[in-house]
Specification:
467 residues, alpha/beta, Urease, subunit C, domain 1, 11-stranded mixed β-sheet, 19 strands
Amino acid sequence: MNRWAGALIFVVSVGLFGGVGAQADALLLRDIRVIDGLGNEALDGRDVLIVEGTIRRVVKTGNDLGTSVGEETQVIEASRLTVLPGLIDLHTHLGRTTFPLPAEDVGSAALADLHEGMRALLYAGITTTMDLGNDHEMIVRARDLQRSGKLSGPRIIATGENIERLRTLSNVFELPSVGQAEIEARLDRHQADGIEIVKLYAGLSNWSARHVMREAHRRGMRGIADFWCSNLSKDVFEVVEVDAFAHGACTRLERSEAQWMYENNKFAMMTLTIFEAMGGHRQLPDYEIKGFLGNPLITDVIGRSVVEDYYQTFHAVRDAFYDAPDSLYKGLHFPQLSGLLEINFANLRLLHESGVLLGMGTDGNFPAGNFFGDSLHREMELHVAAGLSPIETIKIATHNGAKILGLDDQIGAIQEGMRADLLVVEGDPAINISDTRNITFVIQDGTLVDREALTKAALDRKNNEGE
């Protein structure tokens, strides 16, 4: 139950398709446990004061905050709660259907699908996400609508459309004379839309990707690639000059490879939930008990019907992608899918020990059973299962993500002067990482998110559609 103090009038700010939250001049979390996101031990008995969207003071409870606390301060008595920075999912693909978005139709099905994912992320405490490849116009527009307060959801860092082939290029020997003009035109478009990180995808040859990255670096842009089983390969890193790969690897890394990544300032995100789903480690046992139907981080926002549809098509989808002899991934000559999770547990430990900068991403809403919001909490649980401590894992999901995005001077840590993107939970995630699921409040830019409105918007939409 929420614990409130003070007689205040709260203003509920409602954005397109759903509510954002309650706003007061200042917010005080009193007597709360703080996990700062920087890898330090949790501190009990702290007061966290938020003023105008910024963390103004973090002091031991009982210290006089003086004139910092005014009559209009909203106070939450939080002695059994823990606050940590808002979570950052560095790999999502928002939206499900109907591309591209009609230019003037803000209420279109495509944007509604996209916004459903945004609501699910914010509901689960993810206050920032990087959409790593999407319909270009739609995701740029959604990013701008969120920034202007017209779409409730996490802060979006957009990479725009994937660069996965050069349309003007017929063979490798035409670079750079023929392909270079297209590379420049596509990066011009990205830069004009305020995009600083580009996504390279399988379909580009290493040689073509190298020219894309050299032009991107010349412009001060960075690149993240998904080259399937070439991900995290030192040889591909060296040839392509990409900054990171979007997934873990198909084989175990050598210590020398991890050391090379550290020395050359490469970063990584393992997407362990992908390998878990591909191997069926979570999804197959869950199918027997239909456990996702009882998971509030999934059903509260998207509703039970979507999850029931997932179960209806479960075996057909698994056969098409993973399990049948002619499945997609077997056709792509991936190694035994059931072994990829353990391989990347080992790779995660090695990269962490080598000092490589790690962020956290999920690839949500892909594949089936990797639901927005829930999947990042699962990703954290898998990082702990791989051998990292909860505190180290939280740092990866908060401060490290902000550092990768170049936002670590604004978000990703609980420090005075930082933006107040925060997650408040019951329990102690420093001991039990799954306590991050016990969400009491989400705070975005100093505003308490109206999580009930996020669920109501989804239900209203389904009712209007006659579901």
